[in-house]
User: What shape does this take?
Amino acid sequence: MTVVIVGAVAFDTVGLVERLPEPETTARVDRVDVRCGGTAGNVAVGLARLGERVELVSAVGPDFAGSAYEARLRSLGVDLGGLARVAAPTSHAYVWTAADGRQMTYFHPGASLALGKAPVREASLAHFSAGEISDYPRRMRAAEQVTFDPGQECHHRALGEIEACLPLVDILFVNERERERLERGIGLTAQKAWEIGLDALVVTHGAKGTEVLTPKGTERVPVAPARVLDPTGGGDAHRAGFLLGLARGLPLAACARLGSVAAAATIEVVGSQEAETDLGAIRARHEAAYGPCPV
Assistant: This one.
């Protein structure tokens, strides 16, 4: 199976700061790096490192050609035939993380706005992450199983665009704040999710673990232990681990455990793609946190 990943590819400027400043004030930056990122890129890299065949569907700018990012994806065997090459610069995220764990992100969409120029791919399993959501419904219709992680789009996009995707989604991923936003904004309770046709709602709660809600009930998966250095990309790593489980036909709770250990590895280093997250590392972490690994 080739898993199709749709969404934004971005360069990330990642900074560790003493604190998040109030408006009109200044805070000291202790470290700053430019990294490979973007939600779709992160998930694609994470899943490819776990041994799955991956195709990335996105839009990138001239600055992507010949970059270390492009080289990384090619070295991992990620199929880049789904990338639209456009004139706008590749998307760029500016992520600031304070010593207390709080985070602030600014995102320049750039080339990702041109997702409509990328080809539509048929797939047995397709994952849709944050990106140009207005173009997602027609792409979701081409997939047999659809997972969707709207992420940051919940906070700066018209929620009607997210709502339009939901009848085409099988599994929806959200964190606590995103779930609250969708419940307040479009009334997306668990009951409404089942009425729309979702099979599962996966809610991540940071250090409190993951809830997997289905019409049959709720399963709770405790977090895998980690020493948090940089939470950037932790959610995307969770999705990569979860998708590994889906691709292997595992129960949803087992998928969530794989997601948890992948996330734990990612948040212990700076940068969303810098952790050791190959299958051997994931197996070892799974053994330590939950017992024998199912993959």
In short: The longest helix spans residues 252-266.
